[in-house]
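V-type proton ATPase subunit F: structure tokens wanted.
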Amino acid sequence: MAEEAKKRTLIAVIGDEDTVTGMLLAGVGQISNDATESYKQKNFIVVDSKTTDDDLAKAFDNYTTKRDDIAIILINQHLAERIRFKVENFTAAFPAVLEIPSKDHPYDPEKDSVLRRVKRLFGE
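Answer:
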């Protein structure tokens, strides 16, 4: 497990334009040219009105199961709601999935899957 954790060095972002822009300005973004892939892989996706739930689910699956370099996934909570079944069913330790607020959608702790799991552990 420790060897696997050493590979995980990136933060992935699934968010609206403002969130992703802020994260990219903070230095989170990376576009890699993997030798085994014929395309460049980004560790971020900008979700807009044209992005379908299927596209969102594919991005989440890519970051959680297909990539071994992602340590943390930051996802806007309102987008996590659109693929809640995926977020709820993901139970692996890596990558950690953290729901964050966006400019137009405030954070609701009652919807956060991590907080709900913690409450269940403590019997609340």
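The mean pLDDT is 85. Strands lie at 10-15, 31-33, 40-42, 44-46, 70-76, 96-100.

Cheers.
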